[in-house]
Amino acid sequence: MKYLFMLVLLNMLKQRQTSLFGDGIFRCVPSKFKQWMVFPTYDRPTKSFIQSIFIFCTSIKYDMYFQATRLFLDATDQAMQPQYS
Predict the structure, then answer these.
(1) In terms of Cα–Cα distance, which of 4, 46, 41 is closest to 22?
(2) What pLDDT is stored for residue 52 in this prediction?
(3) Pair 36, 58: CB distance under 8 Å
(4) Closest to 10 in 3D by CA, of 52, 42, 51
(5) What span is annotated as the signal peptide, if there is one (predicted)?
(6) Which helix (H) or strand (E) holds 18?
């Protein structure tokens, strides 16, 4: 699994009551990968959704989604405080 994090976007994820959504794209990925996961985040100051996390996945197994979640939780130093609905 390959991942890309940008510092500015990681700081946005550390805001209180972060709204995070997940989307998987299967058709337009490089040949070595099975899925491209995109996680947009709602940015309260600008009132817009910003694509904050992009992960290229080498498998589409069930546990891979938990590994992807663990990646960005670790990248934010467990500082995410999601808003549950």
Answers:
(1) 41
(2) 78
(3) no
(4) 52
(5) 1-18
(6) strand 16-20
Give me the long-range contacts of 65-68 (CB less than 8 A, separation at least 24): 65/22, 67/1, 68/1, 68/3, 68/37
Q: How many CB atoms lie within 10 A of CB 60?
A: 12
- The whole-angstrom separation of Cα 76 and Cα 85 is 21
Write the pLDDT tens digit of every residue in 42-74. Answer: 877 788 888 877 888 888 888 888 888 788 778
pTM flag (> 0.70): no
What would the two tokens of residue 69 be? 């979640």
Checking if the pLDDT of 6 tops 60, the result is no
